[in-house]
Design brief:
With 278 residues, the protein is an alpha+beta fold. The chain contains eleven helices and ten strands. Helices cover 49% and strands 23% of the residues. α3 packs antiparallel against α4.
């Protein structure tokens, strides 16, 4: 008797898709009929799968997890992993192996925000619908197959981000003190602000503040200040006649030279070029 029953489509992307899109390598379904093990490493691919029924185990990054119906998993297959269906409750999966020029950046950004490669969404239906859409897209092989696949994979990734954000909000609300600090940074961006001052003003450990702020808002306090200052600077460049020196001063930059350096790094153009273009 076969250990599993599966349907899969293997896809070879065009050179254009490899360079510009997120693209499918394999997409399909798996029904384990008895214990089934999949083990890989050093594979240039990202695997996303949904457990429809049954249960089993996942080992990844040195941790062994029990996974069951309703769980979603997103793995970097360059790293060693294996997953195994249980003997008592063989599982059913929908899955896709994908890659692309920005696939790794999406994955690292996702994890850096404190999201988990294993999560249990409120509903797996949106994920399974996207996976079904990918399968049909590659089954039909229409003229826009690769463009459509890029969109659907992007939708899956976006859903991973948004679902984890919702789960975190359900798990805990943003503490009042961090909300106050977030508002304070918006309202006082032009002032000289550092972590030590915030720590003293709001009676919170600077280490705790730094860690919790990034976990909740997805960025450091320094980057948040820079974002606020640049946003106000762009508004002034477009809607005022103030000089670059004046704008730098009003937006909290230490001098115009530093302002120009930071602005160019963020926008790939100088403040004056931005003013001329916009």
């Amino acid at each position: 008797m076969a250990k599993s029953s599966s349907q899969r489509i293997l896809s070879t992307p065009t050179s254009y898709a490899r360079k510009h899109y997120l693209y499918v390598q394999e997409v399909g379904t798996l029904q384990s009929l008895e214990p089934h093990v999949s083990k890989r490493q050093n594979l240039s691919s990202f695997l996303f799968f949904v457990v429809l029924e049954g249960e089993g185990f996942l080992s990844y990054r040195g941790i062994k997890h029990r996974i069951s119906a309703g769980d979603c998993v997103w793995l970097n297959c360059n790293e060693p992993y294996f997953h195994e269906s249980s003997a008592e409750h063989p599982w059913s999966l929908k899955w896709v192996h994908f890659n692309g020029a920005e696939a790794g950046s999406f994955y690292e950004s996702y994890l850096n925000l404190g999201n988990s490669y294993l999560f249990h969404p409120r509903s797996i239906l949106p994920f399974t619908e996207f996976l079904d859409g990918l399968y049909l897209c590659h089954q039909n092989k229409g003229p826009l197959m690769e463009l459509s696949s890029n969109k659907i994979i992007t939708d899956i990734i976006t859903l991973c981000f948004t679902e984890n954000e919702t789960l975190k909000q359900v798990e805990y609300s943003i503490p009042d003190k961090l909300q106050q600090i977030h508002t304070y940074l918006k309202e006082h961006h032009a002032e000289k602000i550092n972590l030590e001052d915030l720590s003293e003003q709001f009676f919170i450990s600077k280490f705790h503040l730094s860690r919790e702020y990034k976990k909740i808002y997805g960025t450091t306090i320094g980057n948040e200040l820079t974002y606020q200052r640049l946003s106000h600077a762009k508004s002034m460049l477009r809607f005022s006649d103030d000089s670059v020196d004046t704008i730098a001063q009003k937006c909290g930059f230490q001098d115009s030279g530093y302002f120009i350096k930071v602005f160019k790094k963020a926008e790939n153009m100088t403040p004056l070029e931005y003013r001329q273009k916009w």
